[in-house]
Amino acid sequence: MVRRTFGSSVVTTLVAFVALVSALGCGGRASKQECEQMLDKYLDMVMAEEPELDKLPPDQKKVARDMKRAVRKAEPSYQKVFSQCEAEITKKEYRCAMAAPNPNVWESCID
After folding, report:
1. C-alpha span between 83 and 49 (Å, rounded)
2. What is the pLDDT of residue 53?
3. Within a domain: residue 56?
4. Does residue 80 lie within any of the structural domains?
5. For 87-111, how does the pLDDT look when each residue is reduced to its tens digit (9 = 90+)?
6. Which residues pair with residue 90 across a beta bridge?
7. Residue 102 · residue 44 · CB < 8 Å
8. Which listed site, 8, 24, 51, 89, has its alpha carbon 20 to 30 Å from 18?
9. How many structural domains is the chain composed of?
10. Could you tell me the residue range of the domain that residue 99 belongs to?
11. Is residue 12 part of a domain?
């Protein structure tokens, strides 16, 4: 298993996925709520791979995860990805990403 570092690689991946899907097929698009769910799932999966979070008690783990998610969502690059999601992600891509068991499969849903 490849260990991911949580940080710029997450944002880079999210920006890359928006660029890649801009040329993909038509069909229904993901709603704002679906985009939020999909991007939250990705962040949660990436954070789940962080061994330092596993060392924390459950209540502290939740707080740390929530704080990391909030920091990522406040970044301009995340905001750009989120705002483009509604216009560019299809319902099919959304369903695939939501069923993904890990970040690699999630990313393949939107490539």
Report:
1. 26
2. 85
3. yes
4. yes
5. 899 999 999 999 999 999 999 998 7
6. 29
7. no
8. 51
9. 1
10. 35-109
11. no
